[in-house]
Amino acid sequence: MRILQLTKETQNNILEDLLKRSPNSYGEFEARVQEIIENVRDRRDEALFDYTRRFDGADIDSCSIMVMEEEIARAYEQVDPKLLAVIRKALVNIRTYHEKQRQNSWFESSDKGIILGQKVTALQRVGVYVPGGKAVYPSSVLMNIVPAKVAGVDEIIMTTPPGKDGAVNPSTLVAAKEAGADHIYKVGGAQAVAALAFGTQSIPKVDKIVGPGNIYVALAKKAVFGHVSIDSIAGPSEILVLADETANPRYVAADLLSQAEHDEMASAILITTSRELAEKVSDEVDRFVARLSRREIIEKSLDNYGYILVADTMEEAVAAVNEIASEHLEIVTANPFDVMTRVRNAGAIFLGTYSSEPLGDYFAGPNHVLPTNGTAKFFSALSVDDFIKKSSIISYSREALQEIYQDVAQFAECEQLTAHANSIKVRFEDEAQGD
What we know:
The chain is α/β, with parallel strands linked by helices. It contains 18 helices and 14 strands. Strands 1-11-10-9-12-13 form a six-stranded parallel β-sheet, with helices on both faces. The longest helix is centred in the N-terminal third of the chain and has 19 residues, at about 80-100.
C-alpha cells in the first residue's frame, strides 16, 4: 500500500477521491433507472416479469413471483445446520441490541388542563431489498429486518433477484424466515425498488425501502424518495484504522483487507502516528494479498482507494478521522476509549485489538447498515428509529387557552395570517363583546 505523510493537501486529495465513489456521481445511469421506474409504474407486473427475464434470465410470472412455504422448507434442508445455528446466535445478539433502542410514547399534563406528548407509531409496511446473483448476504437480511420487527412494523416485504432457475439462494431464504419477513418476492434491481415504491398487481406499495444494492438500486431509491421513505443512498464499503505504535501490524493489515475485498470501489485507510507500523502493515498487506481468494478485487481496491497516512501527532490523526468520517472506524491505540471520546464522525467504532470489523458485520449486535462517503457527519446506523414515526399531541382546556389566546393571536397577526388569529379569538368572542 502507498504510504503518505498526512498533510492538509494529502487529506483533501483523498477526500476528493473518495467522494467520486458516491452514487451521486453516476448521473449517466439516472436516465436508464428513471426509464425502468416509469415502465414499472405504468405496466406494473408485466414490466417486472420482462425485466426479470432480461436481467436475471429467469422466467417469473404472477404464480411464481412470491416465494412459497415449500421453497423455504427446501431451503432449510439445503443450508448447513452449523450456519443455521450461527444465524440464530447472531439473531439473538442483533435483536437484544436493537430492543434497547425502542422508544415509547410519552405525555405530560399540568393542573391547568394542558396535555402535551409524543405518540410513537411503527410504520405499517416496509420493503427490504436484498442483493442476489453473485452476492449472497444473509447477514444483511438480519440487519434490515430485525430493527423493523423490533419497532413493530406490521408487514415486512422482502425482494431479492432470483437465479436463472427462478430460485432464491437458500441461505437468504432461511435468514429471512428466521428474522421474520412476511413475504418474499423474486425480483431485483431498480425494478424491485419501483415495485415497492408504487405497487404492482403482485407486490404491495410500502411506506419505506431499506437495504443495500448496486448503483441501479441506489439511484432508484434516490429517485423514488418522496413517494416513499428510504434508509440512505449507500456507497461502496469503507474502513479506516487509527493506530499507534502499540498496534499489531498483522492484525491491522488483515482488517484493512476485510473491506477491500468487497469490491474494487471499496476504500481501506490506515492513519498512524508510527512510520515503523506503516511500513510493517504495508508488508503484511502484500503477504496476505498473495494468498487471498479475492486477490484481483483487493488489488484494484487498494490501487484506487487504499492509503497509509503517517501523522505527526494523534491530534492530527483524529482530525483527519473526523474529516473522512468513515463507515467503519477501528481504533487500535494504547488507550482506545480515550481516543474514541475525541471522534465525532464515524458510522461504527471498534475499540481495541480484538474488536475487528467483521464482528460488526455478522455477530456483535449493532447494525452494519452504516453511512458511507462522509455522510457519517450527519447520518447514523440503521436502527429502530428508522421504522417509527412520531406524532405530536396537544390538548388545551378552555381555562388554559384563555390565559394565552391573545398571545397566540398576536403572533399570527404579526405574520399577517388573520385566519390563524381568528381561529383562536373566535373561541372567546362572547367575552370580547361583553368587554
